[in-house]
Amino acid sequence: MLLKGLLTVLPLLGRLRGAAGDLLSDIENALANATDCASCHALLLPLQTLAHLGNAAFVDTIVALCDASGLEDPDVCQGAIGLEGPILAHDLRQISALGQTATKFCDAVFGLCDPPPVNAFAVPFPRAAPAHPRTFKSTGRPPFQVVHISDVHIDRFYTVGSEANCTKPICCRNFADQSGAPSEPAGPNGNAHCDSPVVLADSLLEATEQFAPDAAFTLFTGDVVEGAVWLVNETEVTNDLAAFNAEMAAKLKGPIFPAIGNHDSVPVNSFPRNTTVTTIGSQFVFDTQSAGWAQFIGAAAAAEVDHNSGSYSVVVSGMNLRIISVNTQYWYKQNFWVYDSDTQQPDPNGLLAFMVQELQAAEDAGQRAFIIGHMPMGKEDALNDQSNYYNQITQRYKNTIAAQFFGHSHKDQFEIAYSDFNDQTAETATSIAIIAPALTPTSGNPAFKIYDIDPDTFEIMDARVYITNITAPDFQTSAPQWELFYSARETYGPLVTPPLPASAPLDAAFWHNLTEVFAANDTAFQMFNTFLSRGGDVQPCDDDCKTVTICDMRALRAENNCDNPTPGLMFKRDGNGAEPPVSESDACEGHGTAHILKALVSRSQNDHAQNFARVRRSDRVPRSVLQD
Ligand SMILES: *[C@@H]1O[C@H](CO)[C@@H](O)[C@H](O)[C@H]1NC(C)=O
Ligand SMILES: *[C@@H]1O[C@H](CO)[C@@H](O)[C@H](O)[C@H]1NC(C)=O
Ligand SMILES: *[C@@H]1O[C@H](CO)[C@@H](O)[C@H](O)[C@H]1NC(C)=O
Ligand SMILES: *[C@@H]1O[C@H](CO)[C@@H](O)[C@H](O)[C@H]1NC(C)=O
Ligand SMILES: *[C@@H]1O[C@H](CO)[C@@H](O)[C@H](O)[C@H]1NC(C)=O
Ligand SMILES: *[C@@H]1O[C@H](CO)[C@@H](O)[C@H](O)[C@H]1NC(C)=O
Ligand SMILES: *[C@@H]1O[C@H](CO)[C@@H](O)[C@H](O)[C@H]1NC(C)=O
């Protein structure tokens, strides 16, 4: 029933009448039938036919489906699909509907296939691991401080007094279709339904100087741009990136080492591989950040940003430490450009090779290394292939890599890599990735981290989380107040057996032992669960959730995570109208086209017997899902 009548609202398709009539009912049936991986492959056949009619026909049809579903406001449907739809249409024109790339497409775009088994690929290394690797010993000198901020998502169109309780993915803007007095006027300092106002971001930068005045440097793991993914354009993104670079330069004393996030391009997540010929490029991002970051990372590294798809490597002045910043977006499931060829490309744009080159240089020079990037490599939204290859690099250079730092999930988390993922113990735990929570208040209280780092080993000695409490009574009436939320060493150190000695680092073995504590001690685990969202918007986590959460802590290699979103059911509610669980990967992607298409397949089934087009406003995607 879904598409009956759509022909009348689709002037463009008027000229395709006849063949298009059949095509539209084919798509309608295939959408309704898409319940598993095989039927998703079948759905791609009519979608390919549509894609061959051109980007405009493809976009208009998907927009009409989105409009008819009532899942998002019309401007969101039009904007998000208008921007991202051409990439999907491009993919569908290039690939076989039945091949492995199509399976990956069905996983990423519709949530209907499991990722295919990892394609074996041995990352080439210039030299085998040394038989007697250099060891790094602490001389007991006092640690230095490093600040870690992430996912600032600054909305430069944030408007005080605008509607904070809107029906769009983010609120607190004067949207064109807004009418009447706001039911909840946006306050000056931010709102859980909205991305960060500039004052909140400024206050974050000032707070880092307040709590770590002598910080050696700041890590920023990406996502400058706000989540209005249906409105962004190149002018806005360029301005947003440049403005935050200027603000960091003005407010932070120490060096800054940034990384590129998936929101820092147009459309969102769009980073075409260098094998793709397209007019939708992301070189403007690399040009902008190369120019803006030169003052932080130096001219040579800035040139690498420009020529290395946003990645660079730099030795910290006066330290035996190399920082390697990688643009993780070529390994990201929601970067739809990676589905435009049936030929598997193990190392898009040569960024894994770049990591190897830089880690080898660090090993040769007797340096330790930090890897920084936006997306942690263990989540369901990391491509299993590239995560596996990345892990090979992590294992080869485990003696060189002191720690890895990411953002993207908006949560306060960690992920552990093992030399043997089938035998996960403190002894096999080889690398630790620390994930900084977000500034944006959309999934908990705004936060940042300060690490204590040993100056000889560059191991993490402590990780402290600082927050501002957006539900505190005076949050809107004075400048945001920041406070220490917890210290990982003080809070977790005494819980492991034996209690963490004063001189021992928070290394991978420690974090592994902590996961054992979480498994055995639910009080400790629930404390972690509260910390995840910094005490705000805490989501209950029962035994099943806990099992998945602990599994994921032990899965810096994505094929080992236990994320298993039920295909196509993300938006289904139970018979009592209860809200579906919020997918974490959804929080990272924002409300782009995959979000809509995943909902469409489930809606299509849900409402098969009803008139899809008459989904009432009250039946919209629940607020909590939209907000995350
Ligand atoms: C959808 O499924 C029904 C029943 O299983 C089948 O009759 C129909 O041919 C299928 N349609 C498509 C487009 O696959
Ligand atoms: C938000 O808006 C909905 C209707 O759109 C209304 O029912 C609800 O009461 C509003 N909430 C607040 C806090 O104003
Ligand atoms: C780009 O976005 C900005 C901010 O929304 C808007 O003011 C501007 O008109 C847009 N430019 C184009 C070319 O659409
Ligand atoms: C893409 O990047 C890789 C790695 O830098 C390089 O070897 C290859 O030549 C590039 N391909 C194109 C088409 O630019
Ligand atoms: C934030 O403030 C509210 C209101 O005072 C309080 O209930 C809540 O516990 C605070 N949250 C944190 C994490 O301190
Ligand atoms: C981890 O736990 C084991 C015992 O289960 C212990 O021998 C080891 O010292 C612990 N390691 C750390 C770093 O806490
Ligand atoms: C469990 O963890 C809590 C901290 O969350 C701690 O106070 C308690 O002593 C732990 N229980 C055991 C049996 O170790």
From TrEMBL:
An annotated Gene Ontology molecular function: sphingomyelin phosphodiesterase activity
Protein's name according to its UniProt entry: Sphingomyelin phosphodiesterase
Family, as annotated: Belongs to the acid sphingomyelinase family.
Keywords associated with the record: Disulfide bond, Glycoprotein, Glycosidase, Hydrolase, Metal-binding, Signal, Zinc
Species this protein is from: Phanerochaete sordida
Signal listed as a keyword: yes
Matches recorded under PANTHER family: SPHINGOMYELIN PHOSPHODIESTERASE
Entry keyword annotation includes Zinc: yes
